[in-house]
């Protein structure tokens, strides 16, 4: 039997851990995983040696912003950045584009805008806003991977937040068809306008209690309606105990965090450096330890980018007025790996958090693992090579990053999308 491609690595990260292996590919799928020295015939063979072989990462939290705000980011640039960072699948958020993805017509407009521009596979979230509960089943049936809502202002007027009654209505509808609701959880009653332009004032305006109160409300409604819910970009480690308790009581609630919450701290934010601004905010260094424990214990199931770019002019001014969003789609893997290895975690842990976990969240059975039958989305990753972040190397539309000048460990060398290094991305629909 002859395969299209065989890749061998002494550090292949498989579902049961890291070991030497040969991965055989046919017709874009992984056909076999064999021993490192197995005799396998192939049209093309790649020997990686001690360069690791990972499954392609899955980033389920990406704001592409096209159409409507393509000058912020677009499918061509966002997916080029993803590919360069070892991310072979992204799921696009429903807001910041015009129109927002809150109806099937808007979804089709977005799919049309993405067609032919994507370097990686791309799926889509739908959105829940006041008054569109009747559209949610249609969005689900049209192939979105779930529905996103806010409980506090989103930052764009065309995507307003849900109040308690609106969220209850959305959850009842989503529970009826077995869908997933993902929630930006900050209680507006706990938020305030920053008292000044500095980071300390911004941080004080969005306290940890805002997340805790909102998550408690979401969990209560999930228990009432039976709706499966997921908390996006968790920054507050104090909420993890509550999440564990609710799960033990049968509430269907999960959570993710982001590279910036795991690696950046409030203490290190330079004066006026609004490239560090995001919502919820980057918190104190001590908070990071709790997030890492949450990952290790499985309370947090995913690490995703929340790639949220804008034009550079919107990052001007102070922390009280600048756009809140961090762009890290290309850098997420080395950022997380650099910190994880210092804390004693291995590549298998990072793959679980950044590939298998997000794929499981959205139901992408063909993604996130190196196993027979899965898509041959594969990444050659040198886990020991170091580099310094130069914003000019970034493929995103605008080279604005809080990681500029930071030394990181881990370099993506080659990416195969469904077994090829030059294959275009596909537009994905939720699998029935």
Automatic annotation (TrEMBL):
Q: Which Pfam families does the entry link to?
A: Amidohydro_1 (PF01979)
Q: How does it assemble?
A: Homotetramer.
Tell me its EC number(s), please: 3.5.2.5
The answer to whether UniProt assigns keyword Hydrolase to this entry is yes
Q: Which organism is it from?
A: Actinoallomurus bryophytorum
Q: Which PROSITE patterns match?
A: DIHYDROOROTASE_1
InterPro entries the UniProt entry points to: Allantoinase (IPR017593), Amidohydro-rel (IPR006680), DHOase/Allantoinase_Hydrolase (IPR050138), Dihydroorotase_CS (IPR002195), Metal-dep_hydrolase_composite (IPR011059), Metal_Hydrolase (IPR032466)
Task: Give the Gene3D superfamilies listed for this entry.
Answer: Metal-dependent hydrolases
Query: What is the top-level taxon of the source organism?
Result: Bacteria
User: Where does the record locate the signal sequence feature?
Assistant: none
Name the record gives this protein: allantoinase
* Known pathway: Nitrogen metabolism; (S)-allantoin degradation; allantoate from (S)-allantoin: step 1/1
Q: Which GO terms describe its biological process?
A: allantoin catabolic process; purine nucleobase catabolic process
